[in-house]
Write a structure and sequence with these properties.
With 122 residues, the protein is an alpha/beta fold. The chain has a single domain, classed as RlpA-like domain (Barwin-like endoglucanases), CATH 2.40.40. Helix content is 15%, strand content 34%. It has a six-stranded mixed barrel. It is globular and about 55 Å long. The protein starts with 6 loop residues before the first helix and ends with a strand.
Length: 122
């Protein structure tokens, strides 16, 4: 197959889209959980101490500092958090929220909730 002179430019874009790293990965739907006092003050993967009262979250892949809107799909409540840690480590979950973020989403008591996350900045 003959490739045009644009192939070296287009190839990375094609591969990013095919692997889910393009704009399609800006939104995710799945289960969220939260973590709090047991981890409060401990060092996160970004090197910052975890503060359960800050609007932060752990995500397996998003760069540290990424701003993400999290929407609780059961009640429509939203919160914007900053990614500063890695996780969740429990299967089937897409994000771990701080206690403060869980409270804003009204999911503190249940512990988990179905959410949509949208990347706002990275």
């Amino acid at each position: 197959m003959r490739r045009s002179g644009l192939w070296p430019i287009l190839y990375p874009l094609v591969m990013a889209i095919a692997s889910g790293c393009g704009s399609a990965s800006k939104k995710e739907v799945g289960m969220a959980s939260w973590y709090g006092s047991r981890h409060h003050g401990k060092q996160t993967a970004s090197g910052q101490p975890f503060n359960q009262y800050a609007l932060t979250a752990a995500h397996p892949k998003l760069p540290f500092g990424t701003q993400v809107r999290v929407t609780n799909l059961s009640n429509g409540k939203e919160v914007i958090v900053r990614i500063n840690d890695r996780g969740p480590y429990k299967g089937g979950r897409i994000i771990d929220l701080s206690l403060a973020a869980a409270r804003r989403l009204d999911m503190e008591v249940d512990g988990i909730s179905r959410v949509r996350i949208e990347v706002l900045s990275d």
